[in-house]
């Protein structure tokens, strides 16, 4: 079985300029979704849309040709000239621009750099009588010819469907001559084109979006029964994206968190309604906005609830005119109860055009012109029927995960695995031998943290130490929970550590200047700042004696405080600095990583330093270092991130990632070996 590096090199060769010639039938199993296009201002651009069907494909030495099975040319790049057949039937010269191929799994034919999922499963398969490798990752599969490295199939599965593109009847000839790279049988340089490719400006962008809307529009649905409770909801484009592009289908039942916008009754765009509701004050920390003079209220109507930023104090029954919007809040971020309804109508609105659509999928029609604006659907209009919604199903408790840490107690003979719940203040205790799990509840509010609420920091006695919502608890094997006492003032100093000899060492970062950094050629910037990090000793009376100041640049993170084996250190980037009693620097040392790895995080664990490094393509490396010499005591590498290590003694260590547990043991020869621990989560639900 090839390694990931061998597969990557094979694919890079097979799909690079020095890859073998390819002659095949391209089969697209479905139509592409809505066009979501990003282009550069002033760059000539043409769009080739390929619906489901079969096409003839040729590639050799950077040249490629795409035709219909009847021979109609669609795209030709012969190394000198690029021709494309536009939707209006015009032959376009795109030599000095780009051609956007809009189809499912377009990377198969555009041969853009494809990197297989490092975490995927690799197995041998047969394709057209040839040996091939299937790489199955999370919701995706890539099949690569084992001899040539050419990708022959790409497919993806999504929560709302899937897509697949593949080559069939594939041939890898020694060469493909110039006579096959022709436009309707003629050399490309002899073709008289209808026009040259042109940049996409505002007018053309709006026309492209209008064409997409015409393509997917469906007739208006029948009117809803007069006695049904109908709620029109506006979903802004940014909310749709912020919610990770949820799927909507006419006829499906959805739960939505809503907010209400009070507007002029004269607006008659079909989304404005007059409602009767009961207004009550929210439970948020500051229900009145001092800067905008607004009161945060909850409106409870007949089958619905919504947040309302009221311009005046009000309680009790109200009659309001306005518009419902979907909120981007998640369940743990809002005091609301979701509104449940059956989707009876879906519409896309772009400018003054509104069309009905049967479903909303991952992409909505949109054209981004970098340096020239954004044009497309905004908002999505959803009509809910509150009377025909399907009944809700009981919520399932989250499965435990090692995403935010773990602990193992009981030793090798009778291991017990401790992990936190993803969204609930629960620590799961799993008997690895039997697989039986029990839940230990932590005494904190469920909505005190939006996600990853219980973080297991390591073992403590026969149980574990857990951080949750600003508190630290010791959880015993018998299910007991005791809160660790910490000075209340430490709530203002996250990352504080106990000094090796006495008291606490704290850190504070003060911003001196902040601004938005714009990437060259980008549409958006991101916030950056620079400032000063202060290190100090916390006194018993709660005062801080600040000892040292460290400058922090705009692309740096403040240093992290660490304590291991009575040594006080700070870590920043690749440097560890050792500090004395006055928090002054004694010496520094560099943390080494393998080529291509970037240090992501350094923590103190089991008296040593734990260094988590990652590459940009999903590989990670976990190193356990001697805190004094930075010698590597144990190295664990592989795919994925969020990986954790617990060392019991000089010969035993436990490793966990999102879903697996491994036991590392050190032999008499000093070498570490590992094996996966088989277990399953059962019970406790």
Structure description:
With 685 residues, the protein is mainly beta. Among the domains are: 4-198, outer membrane lipoprotein receptor (LolB), chain A, CATH 2.50.20.10; 215-385, no CATH class. 5% of the residues lie in helices and 49% in strands. It contains four helices and 54 strands. A twelve-stranded mixed beta sheet has the order 10-11-12-13-14-1-4-5-6-7-8-15. Strands 19-23-22-20-24 form a five-stranded mixed beta barrel. The chain is globular and about 85 Å long. The relative contact order is 0.08.
Structural class: mainly beta
Q: Characterize the biggest β-sheet.
A: 12 strands, mixed
CATH superfamily of the domain at 4-198: Lipoprotein localisation LolA/LolB/LppX
CATH-defined topology of the domain at 4-198: outer membrane lipoprotein receptor (LolB), chain A
Uncertain segments are: none
Oligomeric form: single chain
What value does the Rg take, in angstroms? Answer: 30 Å
Describe the protein's topology:
Layout: H1 4-14, E1 22-28, E2 36-40, E3 45-49, E4 53-60, E5 63-68, E6 73-77, E7 82-85, E8 91-93, E9 98-102, H2 107-110, E10 121-127, E11 130-137, E12 140-145, E13 151-158, E14 161-171, E15 195-196, H3 202-216, E16 230-235, H4 237-242, E17 248-249, E18 253-256, E19 258-262, E20 272-281, E21 288-289, E22 294-300, E23 305-310, E24 316-326, E25 339-350, E26 353-356, E27 359-360, E28 366-370, E29 373-376, E30 380-385, E31 400-409, E32 416-421, E33 426-431, E34 437-441, E35 455-460, E36 463-468, E37 471-475, E38 481-483, E39 497-498, E40 504-518, E41 525-538, E42 544-552, E43 560-564, E44 567-572, E45 575-579, E46 585-590, E47 598-605, E48 608-614, E49 619-625, E50 632-639, E51 644-649, E52 652-656, E53 661-666, E54 672-676
Parallel strand pairs: 2-28, 3-9, 8-15, 16-24, 19-23
Antiparallel strand pairs: 1-4, 1-14, 4-5, 5-6, 6-7, 7-8, 10-11, 11-12, 12-13, 13-14, 16-30, 17-27, 18-25, 19-24, 20-22, 20-24, 21-22, 22-23, 25-26, 25-30, 28-29, 31-32, 32-33, 33-34, 35-36, 36-37, 37-38, 39-40, 40-41, 41-42, 43-44, 44-45, 45-46, 47-48, 48-49, 49-50, 51-52, 52-53, 53-54
């Amino acid at each position: 079985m090839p390694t990931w590096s061998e597969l990557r090199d094979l694919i890079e060769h097979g799909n690079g300029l020095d890859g073998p010639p390819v002659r095949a039938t391209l089969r697209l199993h479905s139509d592409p979704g809505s066009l979501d296009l990003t282009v550069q201002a002033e760059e000539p651009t043409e769009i080739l849309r390929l619906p489901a069907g079969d096409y003839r494909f040729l590639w050799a030495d950077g040249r490629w040709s795409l035709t219909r099975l009847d021979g109609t040319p669609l795209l030709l790049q012969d190394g000198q000239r690029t021709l494309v057949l536009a939707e209006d039937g015009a032959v376009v010269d795109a030599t000095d621009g780009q051609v956007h191929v809009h189809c499912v799994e377009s990377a198969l034919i555009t041969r853009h750099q494809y990197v297989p999922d490092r975490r995927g499963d690799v197995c041998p398969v047969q394709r057209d009588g040839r040996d091939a490798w299937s790489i199955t990752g999370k919701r995706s599969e890539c099949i690569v010819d084992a001899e040539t490295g050419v990708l022959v199939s790409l497919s993806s599965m999504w929560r709302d469907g899937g897509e697949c593109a593949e080559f069939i009847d594939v041939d890898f000839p020694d060469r493909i001559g110039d006579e096959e790279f022709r436009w309707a049988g003629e050399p490309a340089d002899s073709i008289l084109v209808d026009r040259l490719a042109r940049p996409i400006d505002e007018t053309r962008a709006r026309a492209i979006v209008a064409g997409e809307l015409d393509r997917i529009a469906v007739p208006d649905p029948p009117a809803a029964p007069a006695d049904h409770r109908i709620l029109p909801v506006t979903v802004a484009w940014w909310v749709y994206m912020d919610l990770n592009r949820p799927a909507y289908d006419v006829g499906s039942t959805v739960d939505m968190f809503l907010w209400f916008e009070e507007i002029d009754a004269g607006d008659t765009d079909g989304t404005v309604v007059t409602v009767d509701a009961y207004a009550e004050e929210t439970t948020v920390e500051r229900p009145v906005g001092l800067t905008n003079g607004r009161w945060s209220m909850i409106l409870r109507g007949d089958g619905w609830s919504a947040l309302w930023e009221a311009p005046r104090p009000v309680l009790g029954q109200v009659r309001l005119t306005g518009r419902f919007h979907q909120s981007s809040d998640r369940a743990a971020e809002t005091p609301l109860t979701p509104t449940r309804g059956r989707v009876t109508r879906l519409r896309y609105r772009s400018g003054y055009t509104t069309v009905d659509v049967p479903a909303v999928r991952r992409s909505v029609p949109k054209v981004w012109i970098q340096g020239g604006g954004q044009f497309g659907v905004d908002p999505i209009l959803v009509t809910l029927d509150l009377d025909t919604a399907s009944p809700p199903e009981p919520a399932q408790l989250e499965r435990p995960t090692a995403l935010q840490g773990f602990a193992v107690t009981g030793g090798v003979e009778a291991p017990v695995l401790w992990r936190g719940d993803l969204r609930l203040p629960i620590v799961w205790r799993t008997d690895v031998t039997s697989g039986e799990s029990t839940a230990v509840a932590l005494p904190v509010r469920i909505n005190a943290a939006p996600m990853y609420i219980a973080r297991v920091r390591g073992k403590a006695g026969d149980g574990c130490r857990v951080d949750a919502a600003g508190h630290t608890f010791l959880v015993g094997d018998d299910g007991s929970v005791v809160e660790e006492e910490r000075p209340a003032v430490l709530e203002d100093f996250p990352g504080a550590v106990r000094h090796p000899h006495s008291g606490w060492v704290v850190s504070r970062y003060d911003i001196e200047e902040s601004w938005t950094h714009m990437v060259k050629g980008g549409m958006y910037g991101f916030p950056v700042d620079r400032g000063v990090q202060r290190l100090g000793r916390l006194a018993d009376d709660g005062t801080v004696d600040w000892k040292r100041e460290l400058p922090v640049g705009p692309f740096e993170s403040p240093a992290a405080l660490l304590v291991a084996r009575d040594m006080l250190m700070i870590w920043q980037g690749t440097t560890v600095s050792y500090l004395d009693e006055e928090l002054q620097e004694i010496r520094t040392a560099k943390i080494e990583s393998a080529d291509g790895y970037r240090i992501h995080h350094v923590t103190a664990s089991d008296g040593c330093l734990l260094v988590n490094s990652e590459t940009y393509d999903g590989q990670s490396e976990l190193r356990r270092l001697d805190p004094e010499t930075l010698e590597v005591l144990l190295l664990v590498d592989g795919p994925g991130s969020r990986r954790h290590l617990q060392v019991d003694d000089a010969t035993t260590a436990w490793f966990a990632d999102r879903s697996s547990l491994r036991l590392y043991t050190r032999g008499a020869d000093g070498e570490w070996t590992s094996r996966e621990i088989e277990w399953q989560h059962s019970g406790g639900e």
